[in-house]
Amino acid sequence: MVEVEKSFKNIVKKGTVIFGKRQTEISITEKKAKLVVVAKNCPFTEEIQQHAQKHDVPVYISTASNVELGYICGKAFPVASFSIINDGGNNILSQLKQR
């Protein structure tokens, strides 16, 4: 799982990522999200999971807190959730299937 979380920094740099609950839900509804990532302490985890499940989008619950996830993503703010639109060639979905 740690390998997956290390990939997030590269995905943020090379791919397309949308941060925040509202924008994540919009990307799910518009069928743009390939994967949704949620911090272990996100207060909206259940709500995001239900929304993603309705639209057949996989959800990854990180082992990192929102502060740690922000740091992993190279941001200077906490990140509770984000959606991956384009993984920048990191094949994140195949990494998750292997675990």
Furnish the topology, listing elements before pairings.
Elements: H1 2-14, E1 16-19, H2 21-29, E2 35-38, H3 45-54, E3 59-61, H4 66-72, E4 81-86, H5 92-98
Parallel strand pairs: 2-3
Antiparallel strand pairs: 1-4, 2-4
What's the quick description here?
This protein has helices at 2-14, 21-29, 45-54, 66-72, 92-98; strands at 16-19, 35-38, 59-61, 81-86. By secondary structure, it is an alpha+beta fold.
Question: What can you tell me about this protein's structure?
Answer:
The chain has 99 residues and is an alpha+beta fold. It has a single domain, classed as 2-Layer Sandwich (60s Ribosomal Protein L30, Chain: A). The chain contains five helices and four strands; from the N terminus they run αβαβαβαβα. The protein has a four-stranded mixed sheet, sandwiched between helices. α3 links the parallel β2 and β3. The protein is globular. The protein starts with a helix and ends with a helix.
According to CATH, what is the topology?
60s Ribosomal Protein L30, Chain: A
* Coarse structural class: alpha+beta
Strands side by side in the biggest sheet: 1-4-2-3
Question: What are the secondary-structure elements, in order, as H or E?
Answer: HEHEHEHEH
CATH class: Alpha Beta
Overall pLDDT level = 90
The CATH architecture designation is 2-Layer Sandwich
Low-confidence stretches: none
Biggest sheet details: 4 strands, mixed
Summary keywords:
99 residues; alpha+beta; 60s Ribosomal Protein L30, Chain: A; 5 helices; globular
